[in-house]
């Protein structure tokens, strides 16, 4: 039986009269990549920020690695990695300086070289954040989740705005991080990303969970209802053509 590392029970969040999260429950197992999928405004970020201890809930219960969000938020902070919002704050600092700054916030000693190597930015230690490409900035943002050597990392739409090569590269990095035993929770509205990365997904719409299962189970369940695609599935997509013509390697480096 897999260990539950996150348990969410009947979670709600109201913003004034808007009920953004309407009593959702789900578990995340240790070592998995768990996806929260949903359209804009579904409540994904709100749910993530509550579990990250960054936002108050209205009601419900959350446990992270056995710690109660109500009673032990500080213990939870010690074992999670969140993407620090960098853009706009310290664009003139170098990556090495930023890592020192964040390590100071966590009161941790870190191996900057190792962290930058993990996200393929070892040669950019002296580059300023603002000089990085979009893909490099996202990789650095991923690196900031690792500073605390966390058991769980939270990634909120990590590949938004990236080109196909940079997206695939980030997917590989996320899979590598998971291989080291870290649990990953990711929000996305890209279905291909969820299919490629996630062991299990929760589909959220208008603050409610519609379904939680593996991507294959969700597809099988739909097919079992008699669903058929109206058009014949193409043997390749335009993205396949793009990758075939332009290659998989990153352009920015
Ligand atoms: N600080 C806030 N004050 C008031 N309403 C908010 C606030 N933050 C979010 N909302 C509302 O709560 C709902 C859920 O927002 P949330 O950002 O959690 O959704 P999301 O699924 O992450 O969407 P997206 O994919 O667009 O990021 C939306 O209706 C949003 O307008």
TrEMBL record:
<dbReference type="GO" id="GO:0005524">
    <property type="term" value="F:ATP binding"/>
</dbReference>
<keyword id="KW-0472">Membrane</keyword>
<dbReference type="InterPro" id="IPR003439">
    <property type="entry name" value="ABC_transporter-like_ATP-bd"/>
</dbReference>
<keyword id="KW-0067">ATP-binding</keyword>
<dbReference type="Pfam" id="PF00005">
    <property type="entry name" value="ABC_tran"/>
</dbReference>
<dbReference type="InterPro" id="IPR017871">
    <property type="entry name" value="ABC_transporter-like_CS"/>
</dbReference>
<protein>
    <submittedName>
        <fullName>ABC-2 type transport system ATP-binding protein</fullName>
    </submittedName>
</protein>
<dbReference type="InterPro" id="IPR050763">
    <property type="entry name" value="ABC_transporter_ATP-binding"/>
</dbReference>
<keyword id="KW-0547">Nucleotide-binding</keyword>
<keyword id="KW-0813">Transport</keyword>
<comment type="similarity">
    <text>Belongs to the ABC transporter superfamily.</text>
</comment>
<dbReference type="GO" id="GO:0005886">
    <property type="term" value="C:plasma membrane"/>
</dbReference>
<dbReference type="GO" id="GO:0016887">
    <property type="term" value="F:ATP hydrolysis activity"/>
</dbReference>
<keyword id="KW-1003">Cell membrane</keyword>
<dbReference type="InterPro" id="IPR003593">
    <property type="entry name" value="AAA+_ATPase"/>
</dbReference>
<keyword id="KW-1278">Translocase</keyword>
<dbReference type="InterPro" id="IPR027417">
    <property type="entry name" value="P-loop_NTPase"/>
</dbReference>
<keyword id="KW-0536">Nodulation</keyword>
<feature type="domain" description="ABC transporter">
    <location>
        <begin position="6"/>
        <end position="231"/>
    </location>
</feature>
